[in-house]
Design brief:
Fumarate Reductase Iron-sulfur Protein, Chain B, domain 2; metal ion binding; electron transport; four-stranded parallel sheet; Rossmann fold; 9 strands; single chain; 7% strand; 4Fe-4S; Helical_ferredxn; binds iron/sulfur cluster; five-stranded mixed sheet; globular
């Protein structure tokens, strides 16, 4: 495992490096990953590709290269999509390298300048609002009302949004048409059959529960049909990805402890996640042990219980759903599923069980759509370039529906579809299985 130091306290002299030198040396500079890197494909600059970035990190670590604004820019532009990890024949763990680098860089900045302040957007929007499903739900009420009264169109037409700070303009643009309100999930939902085949936990996430609760209800219905009792501990917290990726490892660790306790009390064998980004973070809670060795057993055990819903339903070998759904579907691989969790075939296998559904492939299926957590809010130009590149490939296939297993990708694609005035639904694989089980048509699904 990558470690920044045996003592990660940035105020001590021992805290010298950014990333373990040993781990940086695993890259043999073969360049086989370069063509799988979205930012390299867009800029053609070696420093915007994985090999160049590893070279930069190593140079900085060995104090041969200064961490100038220009060097930092090449590293900041990385989406942490980990497509390069899948492509690398030498097993370089690029995700751990860049995440450790960013964490230690953040801690060094704080150590050198204790008054260093994070931006209001990072603090109040990304880390306070987006990490709290209750707060998100409350703040979305006025938005629901505006959309219901169609005032959002008036706001768009007046151009008043342009008066907002740029990140808020982006947020406005990313906001999807919200589905009708559905009540929060209860703490326990029983399987349709008794005795139940399995007792499983469900992780809610924050943006997922605030904006895509219908996905959670669809997940529960499919699990009930598959003979599972579903436990939804209300004491669970955000996965901590937003904090971890912005260098706030102490907060991420605290959230991890809350989740471990909540699901331990629930007494479940596995914990299911229907959002690829959260699933990748939860499966990698073991990385947090470098910040608190005393939590190692709990973190590793919890990480071992996490399953993506596609992975779990595939292992369970669920019955093919009954209702035909004759649609042409493009399945969009979420990087945090395909690269971070190595889950590629399972969602496709599940979708193939739906009678009448045709899955069509797209070029560059391994390349990121530009969503990448909060990347589409903080790096709008590159995010738009990648999003439009992805959407062009998708639209060439003339799909009736786009399928994605990550709410971040869904938001990104929905925003770009809206910009092009196209009405193609973007749905999770589980929502299509649920629709088939309930014998819904595509038209009913669009509502
Ligand atoms: S994580 Fe993605 S964007 Fe970053 S270097 Fe690897 S392939 Fe490129
Ligand atoms: S990360 Fe892997 S594929 Fe890329 S240059 Fe290094 S060794 Fe080669």
């Amino acid at each position: 495992m990558t470690s920044t130091s045996s003592n990660p306290d940035p105020t001590t002299p021992q805290f010298a490096g950014y990333v373990s030198h040993e781990d940086l040396l695993t890259c043999i500079h073969c360049g086989l990953c370069t063509s799988s890197c979205p930012t390299y494909l867009e800029t053609g600059n070696e420093n915007d590709g994985p090999r160049g970035r590893i070279h930069l990190m190593r140079g900085i670590e060995e104090q041969r290269i200064e961490l100038t604004e220009k060097a930092r820019r090449h590293l900041d532009l990385c989406l942490d999509c980990r497509s390069c990890e899948t492509a690398c024949p030498s097993g370089v763990q690029y995700g751990q390298l860049i995440e450790s680098f960013r964490n230690s860089d953040h801690q060094k900045q704080l150590a050198n300048d204790p008054d260093h302040k994070e931006s209001w957007f990072d603090k109040y929007i990304l880390r306070d609002l987006f990490t709290n499903r209750h707060r998100l739900e409350r703040i979305l009420w006025p938005t629901r009302l505006m959309q219901w009264l169609k005032l959002d169109r008036v706001i768009d037409a007046t151009g008043i949004v342009k008066l907002l700070p740029t990140p808020l303009q982006r947020m406005h643009r990313m906001l999807p048409k919200l589905k009708p309100y559905e009540s929060p999930l209860p703490e326990r939902i029983d399987a349709h059959e008794r005795p139940a085949r399995r007792k499983v936990g469900l992780f809610l996430g924050c943006v997922a529960d605030g904006m895509f609760r219908s996905l959670h209800w669809a997940t529960v219905r499919v699990l009930q049909e598959a003979g599972c009792d579903v436990i939804v501990p209300h004491a669970q917290s955000c996965c901590g990805a937003m904090d971890y990726h912005s260098g706030h490892t102490d907060v991420a660790l605290q959230r991890a402890r809350t989740n471990i306790e909540a699901f331990k009390t629930a007494g479940v064998e596995v914990i299911l996640v229907n959002v690829a980004g959260c699933g990748a973070m939860l499966k990698e809670y073991g990385h947090l042990t470098q910040y608190s060795a005393g939590d190692a057993d709990d973190l590793n055990q919890f990480a071992g219980q996490i399953r993506d819903i596609n992975e779990f339903l595939s292992e369970l070998n669920i019955e093919p759903p009954g209702g035909p759904l004759p649609v042409r579907a493009v399945y969009q691989d979420a990087c945090h599923l395909r690269h971070a969790q190595q889950i590629e075939s399972q969602p496709r296998e599940l979708l193939r069980k739906i009678p009448g559904l045709e899955i069509v492939s797209i070029p560059e299926a391994n390349i990121c759509c530009g969503a990448a957590g909060s990347y589409n809010l903080v790096e709008p130009d590159m995010s738009d370039r990648l999003g439009n590149r992805k959407l062009d490939h998708i639209l060439e296939q003339n799909p009736d529906v786009i399928v994605s297993a990550n709410v971040g990708c869904s938001l990104q694609l929905q925003a770009l579809l809206k910009q092009r005035k196209l009405k193609i639904p973007v749905l999770h694989p589980v929502e299509l299985i649920d629709a088939s089980q309930r014998k819904l048509s595509l038209e009913e699904l669009k509502q």
